[in-house]
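4.2 Preliminary Data

To establish feasibility before requesting continued support, the project team ran the inverse folding procedure on a target of 223 residues. The structure was first converted into the token representation described in Section 3, and no sequence information of any kind was made available to the design step. The complete token record follows.
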């Protein structure tokens, strides 16, 4: 079973065979829960291994989805969940394109991985997203530089359901200790900033046109 700060979730996940590694993850879950900002540990498929309560609160209002819940797989949530844009501000240009670029890099490293292949098939089912992956992402990287696809250090907009934060930005901080790296996991924390003044227009509707974006819509894959 996959670990989650505050308990174990019901979705089965591969976990290390080593009792020492499992004990480490249990203690790391306790440590993660003490972090005040949304923080998550995932594997190379973006399957969530650990998350804290601040992460759960950030995505508390999203509706159910069969394959793209944020507590299950963060990449699938960003790409396929219809409610993703209600939490991830400037969703297409600031979240989807960097995540697609990161996914392309993961496919190069783990091309035979069945979990990544499943995500690739779901991308291929949507013509717009497939075109963005095959053509838009390479063009975007050439336009803005490969560093734009990196998570660590990126500043991205959020629409937090807690009015104390509201429309804000977060700094994505990659902080993966050696033991997590050896287990094949990575950790990011979304360091929240003070709420910004609301922009004109409907909540979540404004898009950033400063960066090249080749997505006009990112619907859930058809099943």
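Position-by-position output of the design step:
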């Amino acid at each position: 079973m996959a670990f989650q700060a505050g308990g174990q979730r019901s979705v089965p996940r591969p976990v290390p065979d080593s009792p020492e590694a499992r004990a480490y993850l249990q203690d790391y879950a306790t440590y993660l829960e003490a972090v005040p900002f949304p923080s998550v540990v995932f594997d190379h498929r973006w399957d969530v291994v650990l998350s804290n309560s601040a992460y759960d609160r950030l995505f508390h209002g999203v509706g159910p989805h069969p394959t793209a819940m944020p507590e299950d797989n963060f990449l699938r949530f960003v790409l396929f969940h219809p409610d993703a844009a209600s939490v991830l501000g400037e969703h297409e240009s600031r979240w989807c394109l960097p995540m697609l670029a990161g996914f392309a890099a993961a496919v190069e490293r783990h091309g035979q991985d069945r979990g990544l292949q499943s995500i690739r098939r779901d991308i291929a089912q949507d013509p717009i997203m497939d075109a963005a992956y095959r053509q838009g992402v390479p063009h975007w990287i050439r336009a803005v530089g490969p560093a734009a696809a990196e998570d660590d250090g990126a500043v991205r907009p959020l629409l937090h359901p807690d009015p104390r934060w509201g429309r804000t930005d977060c700094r994505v901080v990659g902080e993966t200790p050696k033991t997590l790296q050896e287990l094949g996991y990575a950790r990011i924390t979304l360091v929240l900033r003070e709420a910004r003044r609301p922009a004109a227009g409907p909540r979540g509707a404004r898009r950033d046109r400063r960066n090249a974006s080749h997505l006009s819509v990112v619907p859930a894959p058809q099943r």
